[in-house]
Design brief:
alpha+beta; disordered C terminus; six-stranded mixed beta sheet; binds zinc ion; 6 strands
């Protein structure tokens, strides 16, 4: 999460006129997130290698023992700012956004609910306020993202490939959203958009279920570095970018937005993405 990401958004907007509305929307969001990210200070205490190895070996993501340090004032300010951006870009949702941003939320509580990976209390809150739950969840996730990404940056170097090859993020525990093939022989990595990190994952495994290998196949996308990995057992899909030939590491958050047409293609073919993933 750094200022140079904005340049990548600008280049992408220039090259993809039809995606301008969504890219401009996320550029505005990322710009605010980068500001908050830049205000974070190194944590006084972080786990060491032995501790991380132990947690991962036991199947626990790092944040389960080392919760993300969130400045609730900054989170609130970002939440409100993102509400303004959302209003500007999605005027049709103005009524809900007004209701959501007018409420005096307990941000510590919202952050804890998000960290617990069970969003049902948030959905309930939204229903009580008679607002779209996905809007509320979107604002919460995005208001927390700089804090998650900052903490993840500090610990991801301690995650060894051999200690963690699960479908969930080794830092926050959320399911990986995209896959990327990189390095020797095209090792497969998964990406967590909340923490903005990747980790090694098994090459022939469905990230949603424990299907046999023969249930897995992929749909080639013509003239593209992408393919869709699909599972005939659970009907899940994940977009995979083959980055082996690329000179630099791609910005996967942006790549995800640039390949919305592949999500539509997968959904048209009857495949679904993890329903816990929240996107507007
Ligand atoms: Zn994560
Ligand atoms: Zn599956």
């Amino acid at each position: 999460m750094e200022k140079s990401d904005l340049k990548k958004f600008d280049q992408a907007i220039e090259a993809n006129a039809s995606l301008e509305p969504i890219l401009a929307f996320y550029r505005a969001i990322v710009k605010e997130q980068i500001k908050v990210y830049g205000k974070q200070q190194a944590a006084k205490e972080l786990p060491d290698q032995t501790e991380v190895d132990k947690l991962l070996r036991q199947g626990h993501p790092i944040n389960s023992q080392w919760p993300v340090s969130v400045n609730y004032e900054q989170m609130k300010a970002l939440f409100l700012k993102l509400g303004e951006i959302l209003s500007e870009h999605r005027p049709e949702k103005n009524n809900d956004i007004k209701k959501i941003t007018a409420k005096d939320w307990d941000f510590e509580n919202l952050a804890q609910i998000f960290a617990s990976d069970n969003l049902s209390p948030i959905i309930k809150e939204a229903e009580e306020e008679q607002v779209d739950p996905s809007l509320l969840a979107f604002l919460i996730v995005n208001a927390l993202r700089p804090f998650y990404a900052f903490q993840a940056q500090a610990v991801i170097g301690l995650v060894k490939d051999e200690e963690w090859q699960r479908p969930h993020c080794p830092v926050c525990g959320q399911r990986g959203e995209m896959a990327v093939l990189q390095g020797d022989g095209g090792k497969r990595y998964l990406y967590c958009p909340t923490c903005d990190v990747t980790w090694k994952y098994l090459r022939l495994e469905c990230p949603y279920c424990d299907a046999d290998h023969e249930k897995l196949r992929y749909l080639e996308v013509e003239d593209s570095l992408y393919r869709l990995d699909v599972c005939e057992n659970c009907q899940g899909y994940i977009k995979t970018l083959d980055a082996q030939e690329l000179a630099s590491v791609p910005n996967l958050f942006l790549e995800d937005l640039l390949t919305i047409h592949l999500d539509l293609l997968a959904q048209k073919e009857g495949y679904t993405k993890d329903p816990s993933v929240i996107r507007q």
